């Protein structure tokens, strides 16, 4: 997905971050739904979380907010799917926060 690929390149260049997971055919733990990774609409990145989150300000897609709480440490970033506009902690689907449209 072009906007996601562009954002990934931006973060890699500015933050020195690495993609640790991209396209994979898995299901979301706890829900059984097919992961957005399966369609290329999600990636996981590790690196400097402050820098990554700074580059995600205003991002219309979704991303996780619990970098240091999961192993391996990473930010899940998505675009063009059910997570658009969401800022969430992994494995806490009932606590997802919908951000106001900007």
Major sheet, described briefly?
A: 6 strands, mixed
User: Helical segment tally?
Assistant: 2
Strand residue percentage: 15-25%
**How are the strands of the largest sheet arranged?**
1-2-4-3-5-6
Describe the structure in your own words.
The protein is α+β, with helices and mostly antiparallel strands and 102 residues long. The protein has two helices and six strands, in the order αββαββββ. The protein has helices at residues 2-15, 49-55, and strands at 18-21, 42-46, 62-64, 75-78, 86-88, 97-98. Strands 1-2-4-3-5-6 form a six-stranded mixed sheet, with helices on one face. β5 and β6 (97-98) form a beta hairpin. The longest helix is centred in the N-terminal third of the chain and has 14 residues, at 2-15. It is globular and about 35 Å long. The model is unreliable at 93-97 (pLDDT under 50).
List the helices and strands and how they pair.
Elements: H1 2-15, E1 18-21, E2 42-46, H2 49-55, E3 62-64, E4 75-78, E5 86-88, E6 97-98
Parallel strand pairs: 3-5
Antiparallel strand pairs: 1-2, 2-4, 3-4, 5-6
Features:
single chain; 102 residues; alpha+beta; six-stranded mixed sheet; 6 strands
A few lines on this structure:
This protein has 102 residues and is an alpha+beta fold. Helix content is 21%, strand content 21%. It is globular and about 35 Å long.
